[in-house]
């Protein structure tokens, strides 16, 4: 499933980009990892769907067997035969779904290992970059986060800290005043 992504990653690493542009290579690697993680989520969703289908088939089998048993209890051969045919179909479908589920779990495990390898390759690539290039990548990532409204920790200015402290003090004072008023009402002084 990830052959295309791994090929793209390999092409990026094998100088599909100019040798002087490691940021582009890192970006391609990140994109490949994001796509792979999205594919993992889709695979997990597919497994959940098959598990749901399997549970439904098992319930249908139990119903068919129960009906066959009830028909046997009243010696209704025609209903017994119909119930047996349906039970056989449900057993066959259950066997197929169990095989499918086993294959999907194996495929998911393989894909998870491949994603882990891709992450390791990305980390190794990032570490191989000169420190200044890695710092630029980190700064670019923080700029993206800051543009999305996430602040970088430790970058508050002194004015922002004083303002926050003042807001906190005013909030505590308002809470104390509200508690005092509630206590006065309770004591009947207002």
Commentary on this structure:
- The longest helix is centred in the N-terminal third of the chain and has 52 residues, at 22-73.
- The protein has helices at 3-13, 22-73, 77-128, 131-147, 158-187.
- It folds into two domains: 3-155; 157-190.
- The mean pLDDT is 78.
- It is 85% helix and 0% strand.
- It is mostly helical and 190 residues long.
Q: Residue ranges: pLDDT <50 for 5 or more in a row?
A: none
End-to-end Cα distance, whole Å, is: 73 Å
Indicate how many domains the architecture comprises. Answer: 2
- Give the beta-strand count: 0
Beta-strand content estimate: under 5%
Averaged pLDDT, please? 78
> What shape does the CA trace take?
flat
Largest sheet data? none
Structural class: mainly alpha
Write down the Rg: 31 Å
SSE topology string: HHHHH
Percentage of helical residues? over 70%
Please count the helical segments. 5
Question: Oligomerization state of this entry?
Answer: single chain
